[in-house]
Design a protein that fits this description.
About 25% of the residues lie in helices and about 25% in strands. The radius of gyration is 21 Å and the shape is elongated.
């Protein structure tokens, strides 16, 4: 009886501590799970440690409030910011800074989703494209530009995402071009048909659209092969909480430390096209996310900074 009582006291103490946690912290979503399912893994682990049963409970009945901002597609990886407790209400305002992505594009191949998850819709030669050609074209996409969002995205029409409508076979028209901001683009590797970009952008920007538009500007076509978000607002890949630290103590420590990044928002800086001439033409890195930042059942876009459904960039 004493042992059972002691165990109950421990769980009660841990439950109280867990439910008192509040704030934002980043985790690194791997390629494979959706943002929502990966967050749920974290939530279930914390609830189990605290001895709290939540399966079958309706959202409003759940005691532990958790959410994420800036959905990453299942095929993408990278920084996913999590809000816990009152932190869920901070996601929109705290994630208004720039985002950074590393993406691997593939020349000569276009798909209906603008990434590797879609059906190939067109193939074109790319032998004529040089590194210099690529750098010249990329410079055109730095600054305040107009961009047409992908049809497969988390943007909505009549309450349903364009992705879900397209997947049902319904005819979906692309949304009108809208203003977006790109702070910098750096060509990190050029090994046709693959090329690797580092991109820093503002909200609402789709990496998939960028890669597709770059291919068209080069008189060819292109699609995203891999996508990774390395920074979201003040949170960077370096200060994400690893799965082995998914404990009540681990999350509490992460909340106390706060974001490691002290960079100022690039919106206060002059736009810059980074010189990549000194970059080694190494192999293209493996992929990561947000092949954009929005949703296709896949990627979510950088504009969806809310703790809701999956999307893709």
């Amino acid at each position: 009886m004493a042992a059972a009582s002691s165990m109950g006291d421990v769980h009660c103490s841990k439950a109280a501590r867990l439910l008192s946690l509040s704030g934002l912290f980043p985790i690194f979503k791997p390629k494979g799970p959706t943002s929502a399912s990966y967050l749920n893994q974290l939530k279930e682990k914390l609830l189990k440690e605290a001895g709290i049963e939540h399966r079958g409970m309706k959202r409003k009945q759940q005691k532990l409030k958790m959410g994420h901002g800036g959905t990453l597609d299942s095929a993408a990886s990278g920084v996913l910011v999590v809000g816990i407790g009152k932190g869920t209400k901070m996601l929109t305002t705290m994630l208004t800074g720039s985002k950074k992505y590393t993406t691997v594009g593939e020349l000569g191949k276009a798909t209906d989703t603008l990434d590797a998850l879609g059906k190939v819709t067109e193939e074109k030669p790319y032998d004529h494209i040089t590194r210099s050609d690529m750098e010249d074209v990329l410079a055109k996409f730095v600054g305040d530009i107009m961009q047409v969002p992908p049809i497969y995205s988390a943007l909505k029409k009549d309450g349903a995402t364009l992705s879900s409508l397209a997947q049902k076979g319904e005819k979906v028209e692309a949304k009108p071009a809208r203003p977006v901001t790109v702070y910098s683009i750096s060509l990190k590797a050029f090994q046709p048909p693959l090329f690797t970009l580092d991109v820093e952008c503002g909200g609402g920007f789709y990496i998939r659209s960028l890669v597709s538009d770059v291919g068209k500007e080069l008189s060819s076509c292109a699609s995203v092969k891999e996508l990774t978000r390395t920074k979201q607002g003040q949170f960077t890949e370096e200060n994400t909480v690893p799965e082995e630290n998914w404990t009540i103590d681990g999350i509490a420590q992460a909340l106390e430390q706060g974001p490691a990044s002290t960079d100022t928002d690039p919106s206060s800086k002059r736009f810059k096209a980074q010189d990549s001439n000194k970059e080694a033409e190494g192999p293209a890195p493996s992929e990561k996310c947000d092949p954009d930042c929005d949703q296709k059942q896949g990627f979510q876009e950088c504009s969806e900074e809310t703790a809701v459904p999956d999307g893709r960039p």
